[in-house]
Specification:
Layout: H1 2-8, E1 20-24, E2 27-31, H2 40-46, H3 49-62, E3 65-66, E4 75-77, E5 83-85, E6 92-93, H4 124-134
Antiparallel strand pairs: 1-2, 3-6, 4-5
InterPro entries: Kinase-like_dom_sf, Prot_kinase_dom, Ser/Thr_kinase_AS, Ser/Thr_Kinases-Pseudokinases
GO molecular function, one term: ATP binding
Organism: Tulasnella calospora MUT 4182
């Protein structure tokens, strides 16, 4: 019931509306509008461009490369409608998968993870944050 109480109080254009609850055979059910376009997970499967970019980022990190400037304008779509990660001007090859880079104070503010605002080095984590902001 705590979930229902929390959900009931939320009113936002990007939060699924809550209509109420009902109980049947000792099970509590939530009532909301039916959304027929599926979930984000299903969308990504149907639109693999996002998966392609995530795979490119996984590949970079597995090879010790921090991109340093992940954002929508650095993902190009080729003639086969495949996403291609580009602009490696801020990239840095690290010594290991856990090592951060020494790049500081460069990149695009809107896509930077908060620690970069305070001059922390770019890292695999900051790339992942930028990718999440991008999608």
């Amino acid at each position: 019931m705590r979930e229902a109480a929390a959900w009931r109080s939320l009113q936002h254009p990007h939060i699924l509306k809550f209509f109420g609850t009902f109980k049947r055979n000792k099970h509590l059910y939530f009532v909301s509008p039916f959304i027929d376009n599926g979930t984000l997970v299903e969308y990504i499967v149907l639109h693999p461009d996002l998966c392609e970019t995530a795979d490119a980022l996984r590949y970079l990190h597995a090879n010790g490369v921090v991109h340093g400037d992940i954002k929508g304008s650095n993902i190009l779509i080729d003639d086969n409608v495949r996403c291609l990660l580009c602009d490696f001007g801020l990239s840095k090859v690290t010594q290991s998968r856990r090592t951060s880079t020494s790049m500081r104070g460069v990149g695009t503010f809107r896509w930077q993870s908060p620690e970069l605002w305070f001059d922390a080095p770019k890292s695999f984590s900051s790339d992942t944050y930028a990718f999440a902001i991008t999608i």
